[in-house]
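Comment thread on ticket #2218

A.B. wrote:
> Attaching the input chain for the structure job we discussed in standup.
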Amino acid sequence: MGRYIVRRLLWVVVLLFLVSLITFIVFYAFPTADPAQLRAGRQPNPQLVEQIRHSLGLDKPWYVQYFRYMKALVLHFDFGRSYHYNVPVRKHILDAVAPTASLVVGAAVLWLVSGIAVGTISAVRRGKLIDRLSMGGALVAISAPVYWLGLVALYLFASDIGKVHIFPGAGSYTPITDDPVKWFTSLILPWIVLAASFAAFYARLLRGNLIETMSEDYIRTARAKGLRERRVVLRHGVRSAITPVVTAAGLDIGILLGGAILTEKVFNIPGVGMVAFDSIQNADLPIIQGTVLLGAFFIVIANLVVDVLYAFLDPRVRYA
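C.D. wrote:
> Ran it. Output below, let me know if you need it in another format.
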């Protein structure tokens, strides 16, 4: 197991290098705007634009710019300075990690608990009324876009004109260090909105896998031994059927930690997604590069964690 993890970590370094190179080439070869001109303001002096371009190193060939970028990143963990805000990129992105992590972790707990519970009950009560209602509700939740669901939730439960004004803190994020109570109340509605479609997807996924698993021979053997039905379902059935859910959860959490753009935009959460959105609008290459690398890092680490969890969830999985 140890050698496998070390080998995977080495591949993480290679993958992050390739991601940084591809991102750099894409934004250099297909520039949407001139960062120097954007920084110079409206109707800038051409000499000022050239001066800014030289100070930012944009007048150098792309491979020279990339070499300087990677040198600073590897030696000093320096992502450079923002073209638009003129602040260190590392600090700008790290300040946005806490709001995104607060959003994603809370939503992940909510959607995993509810999705696994609903999926298990639906599989055990297959064809019953509760199964039809839960799967019908799951289909509706999957079909509802996050941004639409978020706007409707804000209108109904958070705005002054809404009929049920029970989440007044939603729409204005409060850091946990400032006020833990306001932090919690400001994230309840975003957690529910973000978790809705994921919980519905996981419930349907687990239901299908658990129905198939419960027809396996070892399940019939466990029942023949006289084990209680609850233990058969939870200890043997769910444990075997949950591996695809773990895979999906690892990918989803990794992707969302790289930026839940729509949810953060709707609820005005200053997270990584908002930072990435603003940097793309401003053609701020250093911040774009930093957010892409951060997202790639979360995804590959989440995949590694999922692979390690497989060995504990499924005894048949072994890593040489």
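A.B. wrote:
> Thanks. Noting for the ticket: The mean pLDDT is 82.
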